[in-house]
Design brief:
This protein is an alpha/beta fold and 184 residues long. 35% of the residues lie in helices and 16% in strands. The chain has helices at 4-13, 37-45, 62-71, 85-92, 97-113, 134-143; strands at residues 22-25, 50-55, 75-79, 119-126, 148-153.
Length: 184
């Protein structure tokens, strides 16, 4: 996790960005695993900045959801890479149902607390293995009062994932020669 000193430096530098309106807490991991994430969000909100939180939704338990509402997080983006539970489990290695229930509970808490925020969005990484489920995702998003769905092509970071790319460009072949000559 990010060290406290690093966050303090980043937080202090935000004042030098007069056009900054929003800070996004997201990563190649789960921000809610950070032990001080709520304090970090509160510090950014105290600067009058909007906050978006990207999450896989697994740790979005009622006590966390209540705090996100209280702190005024304006947008929560949840990664859901499958419209059907079995596909989601194959892609993410987790069960979809607890995430759906966490989003439903967040919506209930928003209603109880009289808040429209955070608005909930879904990020869907489209791949060969889940492309046909975009309609299922649309139905699920409607049932969960999702305000936006962001669909993006998978960016393979392993050789195995290359087969999952839906569209793109062929990689540039490396040069066949190992020496270069520069002529003046």
């Amino acid at each position: 996790p990010m060290k406290a000193d690093t966050f303090k430096k980043i937080l202090a530098s935000l004042d030098s960005l007069p056009r900054l309106e929003r800070v996004v807490f997201t990563s190649f991991g789960e921000p809610l695993t950070h032990p001080r994430i709520l304090d970090m969000i509160e510090a950014v909100r105290n600067k009058g900045l909007e906050v978006t939180l990207g999450s896989n939704g697994l740790l979005l338990k009622p006590h966390i959801a209540r705090e996100l509402i209280r702190l005024g997080v304006d947008r929560l983006m949840v990664s859901i890479d499958g419209g059907r539970p079995e596909t989601f489990e194959n892609v993410r290695g987790a069960q979809l149902n607890p995430i759906v229930e966490n989003i439903r509970k967040l919506n209930e808490l928003k209603h109880e607390m009289g808040s429209l925020f955070p608005s909930v969005g879904v990020e869907f990484v489209i791949m060969q293995s889940n492309a046909e489920e975009i309609k299922d995702l649309a139905v699920l998003a409607t049932q969960l009062n999702v305000s936006r769905v962001l669909v993006s092509n998978v960016l393979p970071y392993t050789e195995d994932m290359r087969a999952e790319v839906l569209y793109g460009h062929e990689p540039i072949e490396p040069f066949k020669t190992s020496s270069w000559a520069i002529r003046a």
